[in-house]
Specification:
It comes from Streptomyces fructofermentans. The protein is mainly beta. The protein is built from two helices and eleven strands; from the N terminus they run E-E-E-H-E-E-H-E-E-E-E-E-E. The strands form two sheets. Strands 1, 4, 5, 8, 9 and 10 form a six-stranded mixed sheet that branches. The chain has a five-stranded mixed sheet with strand order 3-2-11-6-7. The longest helix has 5 residues.
Length: about 200
């Protein structure tokens, strides 16, 4: 296993400027979930964006795959202190789902198959900062890593990149999701070590 321990003190020049405070680099991809892994076949998968007045736009798997695709290569940072560099994904830039969506909302709730939720400011999904991804490292995204499709918001701690996402619901006011309601930070900026509510 090619993994650095949390106490790793060797040369880190490869990661200079890329490793947030309190994090350690790993080449593994740990699997962390709050509950059972949903098994969602692509032929029954759907994704929706729902505005605050209840207006919904829906995509099935084929419609989502027909949208413009990008291949972001990004660093990801877990609140449990590991960081993985240069991860390669394929998916739809989130801006494509927001085209022609009329909303005055400032916040969203990401809702997942299996019941998981996490809240984000809407602006953190816009302007090339987030994707709905279906491929990791050249292969279809596995269920344990959120497949068939998950949210990817790499500038925030990875719990904000909701696995098995099925809906984004617009909210005029902020409301905590699953982990936020039990003490995780409401925003989750790894560069500010926003791990818990008091950070």
């Amino acid at each position: 296993m090619n993994t650095f321990s949390p106490g790793f003190q060797g040369r880190t020049h490869r990661f200079e400027g890329r490793l947030p405070p309190g994090q350690y680099p790993t080449e593994d991809f740990p699997v962390l979930s709050a509950g059972p892994t949903p098994n969602v076949p692509t032929d029954s998968w759907t994704f929706s964006v729902v505005t605050e007045d209840g207006t919904a736009r829906d995509w099935n798997w084929e419609q989502m795959k027909a949208l413009p695709q990008e291949e972001p290569e990004v660093d990801i940072h877990c609140v449990t202190r590991w960081s993985k560099f240069g991860t390669r994904w394929q998916g739809v830039p989130f801006d494509a789902f927001l085209d022609d969506v009329e909303t005055a909302a400032d916040f969203v709730m990401a809702e997942s198959y299996g019941g998981y939720t996490t809240n984000l400011p809407l602006e953190d999904l816009q302007d090339g900062k987030a994707w709905l991804v279906h491929t990791y490292d050249g292969y279809p995204l596995s269920p344990e890593h959120g497949g068939p499709a998950r949210l990817l918001v790499p500038h925030l701690y990875f719990w904000k990149s909701a696995k098995w996402v099925r809906r984004i619901r617009m909210m005029p006011d902020d409301d905590p999701g699953f982990w936020e309601s039990v003490g995780y930070h409401n925003y989750g900026d790894p560069w500010r070590e926003q791990r818990g509510w008091s950070d």
